[in-house]
Every structure is written in C-alpha cells, then in structure tokens.
TrEMBL record, chain A:
SMART domains linked: CO_deh_flav_C (SM01092)
InterPro entries named in the record: CO_DH_flav_C, CO_DH_flav_C_dom_sf, Diverse_Substr_Oxidored, FAD-bd_PCMH, FAD-bd_PCMH-like_sf, FAD-bd_PCMH_sub1, FAD-bd_PCMH_sub2, Mopterin_DH_FAD-bd
Annotated keywords: FAD, Flavoprotein, Oxidoreductase
FAD-binding PCMH-type domain boundaries: 1-177
One GO MF term: FAD binding
UniProt-recorded name of the protein: Carbon monoxide dehydrogenase
Pfam name, any one: CO_deh_flav_C
PROSITE patterns with a match to the protein in the record: FAD_PCMH (PS51387)
UniProt keyword annotation of Flavoprotein present: yes
Organism: Nocardioides luteus
TrEMBL record, chain B:
Keywords: Molybdenum, Oxidoreductase
The organism's taxonomic lineage, starting at the top: Bacteria, Bacillati, Actinomycetota, Actinomycetes, Propionibacteriales
Name listed for the protein in its UniProt record: Carbon monoxide dehydrogenase
Signal peptide start-end: none
Gene3D superfamilies (alphabetical): Aldehyde oxidase/xanthine dehydrogenase, a/b hammerhead (3.90.1170.50), Aldehyde oxidase/xanthine dehydrogenase, molybdopterin binding domain (3.30.365.10)
Amino acid sequence: MIPASFDYVAPTTVEEALAALAQYGDEAKIIAGGQSLLPVLRMRLNAPEWVIDLGRIDSLKGVRDEGDSILVGAMTRHCDVATDPLVAEHAALVARATATVADEQVRHRGTFGGALAHADPAGDLGAPALALDAEFVIAGPAGERVVPGSEFFQGLFETAVSEDELLVGVRIPKHTGWLAHYEKFVRVAHQWPICAVGATLKVSGGVIEGAAIGLTNMGATPLRAAGVEQALIGQQATEEVVRNAAALAADGAEPPSDLNGDADYRRHLVTVLTRRAITKALGG
Amino acid sequence: MTAVEARPEQTNEIGRDRRRKEDARLITGRTRWTDNINLPGMLHLAMVRSPFAHARITGIDTSAAEESEGVVTVLAAKDFDETLGVCINAWPITPDQKTPAHPPIASDRVAFAGEIVAVVAARSAAAARDAAEMVEVDYEELPAVVSLEEAVKDEVLAHPDLGTNKSALWVFDSAQAGTGGSVDEAISAARTDGIVLERTYRQQRLIPAFMEPRSVVCDPTGEQITVWSATQIPHILRFAFAATTGVPESKIRVIAPDVGGGFGGKLQQTPEEMIVFALARRLGKPVKYTETRSESLLSAHHGRDQIQKLTLSATKDGQVTGLKVELDANLGAYVAIVGGGVPVLGAFMFNAIYKFPAYQFNCQTVFTNTTWTDAYRGAGRPEATYAIERLMDELAAEVGVDPLAIREKNWIKHEEFPFTTIAGLTYDSGNYEAATAKAKELFGYDELRREQAERRANNDPVQLGIGISTFTEMCGLAPSRVLGSLDYGAGGWEHAQVRLTPTGKVEVITGASAHGQGHETAFSQIVADRLGVPFEDVEVLHGDTQIAAKGYDTYGSRSLVVGGEALVRAADKVLEKAKPIAAHLLEASVDDLEFTGGRWTVRGTDQGMSIGELSTAVFAAHNLPDGVEANLDSEATFDPENFNFPHGTHLCAMEVDTETGQVKMRKYVCCDDIGNIINPLIVAGQVHGGLVQGIAQALWEDAVYDEAGTLVAGSFVDYLLPTAADTISFEIDHTTSPATTNTLGTKGVGEAGTIASTPAVVNAVVDALRPLGVHDVTMPCTPERVWRAINEGSAGGETTGAAAAHFDQSTGMSGNVDRTEGDVQ
Ligand SMILES: Cc1cc2nc3c(=O)[nH]c(=O)nc-3n(C[C@H](O)[C@H](O)[C@H](O)COP(=O)(O)OP(=O)(O)OC[C@H]3O[C@@H](n4cnc5c(N)ncnc54)[C@H](O)[C@@H]3O)c2cc1C
C-alpha cells in the first residue's frame, strides 16, 4: 500500500491554500485529516501530483459563537467537535453524530470539513448538518460564498465545492435546548452506518414545536425526512404520533443496495430507526 | 475467565498462569518480523496481478515499467524456466483427482482475479510498485464460474482444458467400511416410520486475515540459500523448494522468524515464495516481497466455502439412525497444498460425539475462478460440527424436546470410552455429561429458558434464543500411518531436542513452528518441570531449518499434543543419560540415586548435584565414567498412534431484535475438556480468540464475490472482522479427562473455540425465532437476513455482491469525476 509519489505543500493561511490550488489546479488534492484521502492514495485510486495540507491553517480550527449561529471550522477534528461545549449546547445532534464516527483513532485525525467535503452518503455528519439547516462557507478565488445544505450535497461524493475552492467552515443556526439523538445502525462498531437517523426536536409543554430529521445512507446524498417532520410539528409527543410519523421516513428515498442490505430492507429499517431516534431524543 | 480448579500451593510450572515470554517483543514489534529484515543490496518485488477472474493473456508489455526509475528487471512467465518450481498439492484425495498445474506465474491464462502475471524487481518497494502500475497486460476475458452452485453444473468451466469443474469425489460409507449399517436403508426406514430431516447449509467463504501480511526474503549469497518467510511451515516449505526447483534440500535454509498469526492461512507454499526464491537466485542478490493488505485478502488462500446437503434419519423419539452428507467444496482456481483434504478432514467428524449406526459422507471438490481455498482454523471440523450441531437442534425441535436432551439421548456415555465411532476413529477419553452439567450451571440455563418463555409470551420485540454446541474434534495431526492410508503426501510426527549449555541453561528445539500460540512459554514450563530447572533458564528455539532440522510445523492443534510429547521424551532421555554420570560423580550406585526438583541425591545422604552442575561437569569432561560420551543433549521423534479428541459444551444466548433483524450476544459460556492444562492463561487466550473467530463466521465474515469474480469484500471495510467492541466477556471453564495417548494427558485447544462457537451462535439465533416459523438463517446472520427470515420465511437470501465505496478518488471535488477503477495492489 504505497502511494505514488507526490509533492507536498502546507500553507498557513486560506489565501495561500487557494493560491496553491490555483497554481496546481487538478493536479492537486487537499488533505485535511487524511482519513479518507490516504486510503485513496495508498490503494492508488488516485495519484495527485500535489497534496495541499490544511493542517497548519489555524483559522480553520475550532468552533466560534456568531450570535444566532455557531461556526464550526472545517479543520476541527471529530474528537473536538464531539466534546465542544458550543456544539453540545446549540447543535446537540452534531455532537451525538460525531461521537459515533468510526473509532477513536479516526476521530482524532478526521475533520468536520473533510468529512462533509468527502460527501460519502454513508458519512454521519451530512444528515445532521442538513437537518440543522447548516450553511456551508466556501472560499474561492472570488472570495467567500455561502450555500445551504440542499445545494452543498450534489451527489455521490460530489459537493458544491469546485476544484479551485475550499470549504472553510459550516455555520449552524443555534438549536439551543433542542433534544437530540442520532440512531446509527451498524453490524460491527467501526463501520459506516448501514442507515442512520438524526432527530432533533424542540418540545414545550409536551407539544413538539420543532422537528428536524436527517437520514444517512438513504440515497446518494443526505436526506431530510420532511414528511416525518410535518407529522410531528404541533403534535403532542405521544408514542402513537411518533410511530405514525416515523412510518413516513422512507417516503421519496432511494436507498442503495449493497453487501449490508438491499434497498427494501433499508426502507423498512429507516422507519424503525426514525421511531427510535425520535423516542430516544424525547428521553424514551 | 473462571479459574480452572482451586490449585494447591504452586510448586510446578505446569498448570501455572505464566505470562507469555514472547509477548513483549511480539506486541511492540521490536523483533524479527520478516518485513523488518533488511539486507545489503536487497531488491524489492511488486507483483502484477490479474484484475479478471478468467482471461486469456494476449500480450504483456513491460517496456515502460523497465524504463521506470530504480527498476532492475520486469519478468513474466515466459522469462522463467522450470527452476521457478510449481505450487504443489500434497494431498490428492483420490487417485483420479483432477489437479491443474499451478505455476507461480500464469503464462497464457489467468484463473482467478489476483493471480500473478508479472513481477517487478526494483531498488525500493515504492519503485517496484510504481513500475508494476506501468506493466501493460492485454487480456481477452473468458467466461468465469464463481459460485459452487454454478460450478457443479459444468456449464462454464474454470479450466476449459479439464473438461469439467469436478476435481475429486471422496466417499466414506459405513456399510462398506464395516463400521456400521447402510445409510440408505436407515433413511428409507425412517421415511415410513420415523423422522427424516433434509437440510442444506452454506459454509460461506472466509479469509484467514492474519495480522501480519505475508512477507518473504531470500538471500542467495552464501553456500546455502536462506529464505525468511512469514509462514507456518518452514520445514514443508523447504521440502517444496527442493522438490520443485531442483535445488538440493541441503542447500536451502528456511527461517520462519516471528510470524504474526496464520490461522491456517500461512500453511501454504505460495507463488510469492517461489517467485522470490527464483528471482534472488537469478539476480544473485537478496530479494524481498511483502504483500499489501489488499493483496493478502485477495490472493492469500481463503477458507471454508462448502455447501452441505444433509439427510438425517431418526426414530420418532429422536434416536438418530443414520446421517448422509453430500458436500460440495469449493477449491477455488487450484488445488492448494492441502486443498481438497480440508473437507476430508471433516469426514470423520460429522458423527461428532454421537453414536450413529449408519453414516455416509460424499465430498465433491469443485473448481471455480476464485482464490484457491485451503486450511482455515479448524479446517474441515468446524464445517462438520456446524452441520451436525445445527441438525441436532432441528431434530430436537422436530421431536419437541430440549436440544440438550436430544444430544444426551445420542451421545457416547462417559463409561463407554474408549469408543470406536461409525467413522472408524477411537476416541480415547471424554465426559460429555460432566462438561454439559458444568456449562449448564455456569450459564444459568433454566433461568434463561424461563426468560425466553416470558419474552415469547409477551411478544417482546426482542426475542431471546439459546444455542447449544456439544462439539468434539480430531486434532493433534497426525498419525503418519493414517495419513499414509489417506494418500497424504507427508507424515505427522514431531521432533524435539533438549540441549544443555555449559552454564546449565537449557535449549529446547522443536519442529513445531509457533506463530503466536505461545510455544516458548508453554514448552519452557514443560521442560522446567521435567528437568527441575527455572522457567527462565529454558530457551525455546524453533522455526529455522538450520536449528530445528526436523519438523512438521504448526497447524491442526498439534504442537503440544504431538510436539510436546516429543519434548517430554527428549527431556527424559537427557535424564537417562545424566543418571550414570551423576552416580559416577557422586560416587554412588545408580540404584541409590533419586531425581527430584532438578537434583540427583543419594538416598539416605545429604549428597546431591543439580542438573546445572552436571552439565558443567559434562562440558569439562574431566571425570566421566569410561565409555560415556561428553554429551547430555537428546532428541526424540514422536509419531502419535491416534488423533486427539478435545470436546466441550458451549452455550450461547442471543437477543434478536425482530424489528431490525439485529442480533446481540447476551451470554456465552463454554466448558471445554482439553485434558490436563499446561498454562491456563494461554488456554484462555486460545479459547477467547477461537470463540471470536467462530462467532465471526456466524455473524460477520463473508468473502463475497460478484458475478464477474471480483472479490467485493476485498478490504476490512467490507470484510467485517470484529473487534473487542463487538464481543462480550466469555465465561470459560474446564472439565478434565486426560488424553491417554500422550504422557502429559493434554488435548489440543488451538481450534476448539472456533469449531464449537459457530453453531452455538446460529442455533441461538434460530432458537429465538423458531416460534415465528424460522428454522434456518444462512451465515453470516446479518440483520438483513434475519429480518428476511422473519418476514419472508426464507433463510435470509443472498448477499448483494456490491460494496459501497467509501474511498472514492473523486472525493470532495465536483467537476471531472472519474470513477475508473484502480488496479489491485
Ligand atoms: C476506518 C474508517 C472508518 C470510518 N468510519 C466512518 C463513519 O463511521 N462515519 C463517518 O462519517 N465517517 C467515517 N470515516 C471517514 C472519516 O470521518 C473521515 O475522517 C472523513 O470522511 C474525512 O475527513 P478527513 O478530515 O480525514 O478528510 P481527508 O481524508 O483529508 O479528505 C477527504 C476529502 O475531502 C477533501 N477535503 C478535505 N478538506 C477539504 C476542505 N476543507 N475543502 C475542500 N475539500 C476538502 C479532500 O481533498 C479529500 O478529497 C471513516 C474513516 C475510516 C478510515
């Protein structure tokens, strides 16, 4: 497992990184935590001539309070996101989901931005980001632009970030006080989810005032279960309401068939997991 | 784990929980793993492998690769002569077995994806890999046959020249052998007045997945060619080099330095070893090849892969009257070194611990265009045990009694040992009643059955199942005469030598070749007791044909029960030699000497001499009796007269989530009877590891191919190995029926856990779901299969042969997405 040889550059600012991207164009690959890129290189699925390491750009690391929202820097590692107090308080679903990613080793290297930019439909962070109406901050030659989740995820391993751009951070509107649970279904602990459901809810006096449900690995991109959300909002948080809402989870989804399960199984599974995610978020 | 038995104050080494002396170096890696060996001027190899399962090679262009930086040479099959040697099959199971030639490098046709078509030698491993990417091979794809079901139809042929995919049909019939009655009569009698169960079980294909990938170094500079290989079988490998390359054995030294696991997967003579040997000789320089993990999964031999068609007949109250086994075994593309012998090793075990009056075993070995298969932990016995232990549960369900009761009704009672089985083996000792009683108690069997009944009554979405496996196995491979009668191409004895150094330390040389089992510790304990020397003073040397000149290596749970016995005999010979010398030096008569605690003493006096003092005296040789050699060193070769038969009762409780199909282990208890135990800690390690490997077959591991013959589960993302996070704490215990066939009374434990656990787990899953009409779930019991079994009444169906990509070369970039597949590395 020896990668083809490549040259390496480690800029310390976003500007330098963009300049390197502009210079080397499609001969370059960005490396963040390397947890997805390195296997690609080692298995020689790709052989870029340049690897641009974002690891020394301090401005991309950490979580900031921006008033109505928090900004998670692209280079914030999974282990830091999972334990960050701002994330825990305002985006609990992200904290819950991040804690389930891979294993300790991968969580100590892999980054929030790297995982989202990688856009693996089985990645655990896309659905929570989508559910929380996150905005993706992308820097490019013409400056920064911001895209919503619905535009960011374009397909299997495809995002709105183009070759001369960088994902610099993710802005998540505060969901302070929302209950959250991420229900991940795997066969062995270190696996990507066969299917997972992130549920976060705002409940007041037993009534569900807000609901956001994200689905992982139910299609080429992360999905939001809008039908489930609609069926919950304004309702009493009863077992029956939850059950009926969860039954809608697979509506419109086109899940994959692979070694771990065929599409029909996933369509069934997602309804059970949605019910469980909501129930557990509610404290059940 | 639970303590073996309350032990009195510790005076002996045997029976003691010694931590393994080899572990520090093995765990830290500060040792001689083959890949750690670097020699001056050494060249590195990279293999070019076929991406196609079956194809004609129409051209190989190596010119670009040859130009690549650091490359010394690029060679294809045509560039070698017969000194390259061939990969041998040491066990043609029938005289008319079809055995296609297996050259290390394919010349005009590849028969599986991963087969080597060219090799690059370069100054660094990276340069070799880079150049390997540049070798251009033109293939003309041929139709590939991948599954056993397709292969037996003989429509698409794995080797068109053979005219068939069928390699050999091996049959044992109790009526013919005179060990019992006619199975067909038993079955037809049961059809009119009794029970006939007909079942088909699949043993999925598994990958041994040892921790250290295979690696070979060959140094041809010297009178003897020295080969280091991450192998289980240095002695057999040396033989194979000599037998197939024309280099005399005396010119070859093979060393298996520290080897990081094998599980049968390194019981092989590999194409890579042959290529390294040939290239080093040709270039006159040391050469190294170390495989990548991807190559290891793809091209190191695989295990299991059988379809078992079973017919069991019984009386209405559950007394088994006959068992017929019709088995198809997938050889893959070639007949490997043991190859078709693996299922044959199972032939003697389908009757397990039971008294069956009639038995028939038919095994058809079959070629496919897949990686070749061979031994994997248990080799033949797990498959047999699975089949019969699943069947016993099915029979209990049919009769409507507890599955333990049906076993008891049929098993050999402890007072019936030694017992000659329907398969013609004589079990020397055992006590199934005792092991079962102990396991039941530890498990809380009745309590769990009560809970199961409650969950059933309440329609709990999570159901509880209890699975049983009362296994035995034949190990301690093997009596040479029996091997001869089965046309196996080698013997099964083991050799040991005990040497005393001038300072009184002990060197033990064994022909067994440990690769993680802990021989250095266990063998030191045996010799420390036998010679009365400190444990620390014993050094165990192995795995080098120059040091351990004779041996048959390590597999088949043989090292202790065969190799340990050779060791005991060699140590006893040392004492025999020492005695007259001790008497002479102590000026006493031999008859007045006593040997205890490492000292000879003269009865009735305070005179004595330790074995250390004696070895110094023998070294000096100043005062030896006339005509006595100045040498205490001794050796022994032990050829067992019989196999060795550990047994045990394994009980497993599984929770099955009927909504998702997810299964979760609740409790696992086993009580193994492995005779006397040398080191309980090592035994616990073997049992725990063995259990996890067997459980993994039941639940996780599956080497899935797609229809084109591509190994889809080709990385650890898709070939699911469990970690500690996926298992629970096992409770293990023992009963003790010492083996009568070796001095120490030991029985093999290396494979026991793997053999026993698989059916215990699947029986538990099926037991949980039986009220829902489920009577089988195909392995591995994935959540999807369990869910389908519940909802569709099937055994769970096929696995979709497609892996989800997680490492995609287009990662994170939109625009020019290029998903062409990379080559296999
Ligand atoms: C064994 C294993 C198990 C795993 N299991 C899971 C799991 O269960 N769930 C899960 O969600 N993930 C899992 N992962 C993936 C893990 O989360 C990775 O860390 C993540 O997908 C990639 O993050 P990274 O920082 O390592 O990115 P890298 O590997 O460095 O980069 C990934 C891709 O994104 C691009 N990229 C990175 N950063 C940027 C940026 N700022 N802007 C533009 N492009 C960028 C890179 O060029 C590359 O193409 C697993 C990984 C491994 C190795």
